[in-house]
Design goal:
About 35% of the residues lie in helices and about 30% in strands. It has about 190 residues and is of the alpha+beta class. Strands 1-2-3-4-5-7-6 form a seven-stranded mixed sheet, sandwiched between helices. A hairpin with a 2-residue loop joins strand 2 and strand 3. Helix 5 packs across helix 6.
Length: about 190
């Protein structure tokens, strides 16, 4: 039976939808892996390449995906389904639909495969056509000075080669998403 999933732009003025997204966002990501929700809303109202799409099943909001639409690739910042709506194919649908709609490579961060959940998450992305670049160290800068930076890994889908283009691909993420100086983090990574 075909699932009735759809992916739509989320608008900051839809308060009910923003409250749903906030609830899923706050419960799905620990504080060090997310910005304050008020900052997310501000990004939606500004002229930035930041986008939020809501995932619906039969018209009901069940999750969301946030991404930055850069010139030659998209960076997925956050992707989550309501806990009661996971496992039904919505995640795979979302990644496929986003990839087809954007028609450009996609990059995202994942936690290192150090526990069952992170291993499952990486496997999910691999089934969706993503490649794990575990041969490249990557540091996620903190979202604000009170938070810690995190050692993560990068995964890509499409024509992104981190062996040859790591700095070119990662620099806009550092600069625009995290408001961090790329050279500082490249030095920390020994580049």
């Amino acid at each position: 039976m075909k699932q009735n999933f759809s992916l739509h732009n989320a608008h900051h003025s839809d308060l009910e939808l923003m409250n749903f997204i906030k609830d899923v966002y706050v419960t799905s990501f620990p504080p060090e892996e997310r910005r304050e929700f008020s900052q997310l809303l501000a990004l939606l109202q500004e002229e930035t390449p930041f986008r939020v799409k809501v995932i619906r099943k039969g018209g009901e909001a069940i999750g969301f995906i946030t991404y930055w639409n850069f010139d030659s690739y998209a960076y997925v910042e956050h992707f989550a389904l309501h806990p009661e709506k996971r496992g039904g194919g919505a995640g795979a649908f979302t990644l496929q639909e986003l990839g087809e709609t954007l028609d450009m490579p996609i990059i995202l961060e994942v936690e290192k495969p150090e526990d069952e959940m992170s291993v499952r998450r990486i496997s999910f992305y691999e089934r969706a056509g993503f490649r794990l670049w575990d041969n490249h160290r990557y540091i996620q800068p903190p979202y604000d000075p009170q938070k810690e930076e995190l050692e993560l890994l990068l995964m890509t889908q499409g024509d992104l080669n981190l062996d040859s283009d790591f700095e070119e691909v990662v620099a806009p993420i550092y600069k625009y998403v995290y408001k961090a100086e790329p050279k500082h983090y490249f030095a920390k990574l020994g580049r």
